[in-house]
# Entry
Amino acid sequence: MSTRVAKRFEGKTAIITGSARGMGKQLALDMVAEGAKVSISDIVPDILQEAKREIEKEGGECLATVCDIAHSKQVEDMVNKTVETFGTVHILVNNAGLLTPATIEETTNDLIDRTININLKGVLYGIRAVTPIMKKNRYGRIVNVASIVGKRGDNSTTFAYGASKGGVITLTRSTARALGPFGITCNCIAPHAVLTNLMRHWDEKKKREVAELIPLKRLGTVEDMSYLMMFLASDESSFITGETININGGYYMD
Ligand SMILES: NC(=O)c1ccc[n+]([C@@H]2O[C@H](COP(=O)([O-])OP(=O)(O)OC[C@H]3O[C@@H](n4cnc5c(N)ncnc54)[C@H](O)[C@@H]3O)[C@@H](O)[C@H]2O)c1
# Structure
């Protein structure tokens, strides 16, 4: 008989950063459908409120907080507000990220700082803020969102971005080692070519060219990402930690 249960997140509270749109919002919708209470946050207030309404329409319990993860105090406040509202935190998904294409010559100090502050330091702020809570619970699931370019680098326009995502992969491993003894897992996904606002600089020709290079001959969807993140956030993945899983239609394998 199958042990699979329909609702993997009953009784669980999940924080998902950068969840006003894209794969973070899809994940929030999918997790509430499986019983989670979700704490969503983003830097864009109007679409954040829209996402909250959408989640509540599906019957989900949702806290929405404007939070710029580049600021540690805002991250700590958002985590504390989640605990005040829902009692504790079981799952943290560090999803928020920024991609500003630039060649090496165009990569200004400001772009380097912004990219590292959000994509790398923001992830560490989140992990640090939930650690005492998860340690006390002796339970936690942390899922980070890196990128294919964090593994293989890139030869086009994502230098600061690739470096920040490479840092997230290392941070995932260190967190997994440090927090494993407390029943906390930390894993990472490395997506490529998912049609979201982040890829708004791709025109139709570019999308076709990118899809053509992918063995599965299509771009990724937010649902593809959500299903993997849910697996890593669930108890089905309880013996996996420190991993960064490629999700790219076979474009890059390691
Ligand atoms: N789309 C892809 O092909 C792709 C590929 C590899 C990795 N990723 C990663 O996936 C994650 C989600 O991106 P997406 O594709 O859903 O893009 P998206 O732009 O739809 O969603 C990202 C969200 O993060 C928010 N955000 C940006 N800076 C923030 C900050 N400082 N604090 C809080 N929120 C902030 C944005 O407002 C946005 O709502 C990102 O970390 C991105 O780097 C995406």
In short: The beta strands are 13-17, 37-42, 61-66, 91-94, 140-145, 184-191, 244-247. Residues 17-18, 20-24, 42-44, 67-70, 95-99, 118, 145, 147, 191-194, 196-199 surround nicotinamide-adenine-dinucleotide (CB under 6 Å). The helical segments are 22-33, 45-57, 72-86, 109-137, 148-152, 159-179, 204-212, 222-233. The longest strand covers residues 184-191.
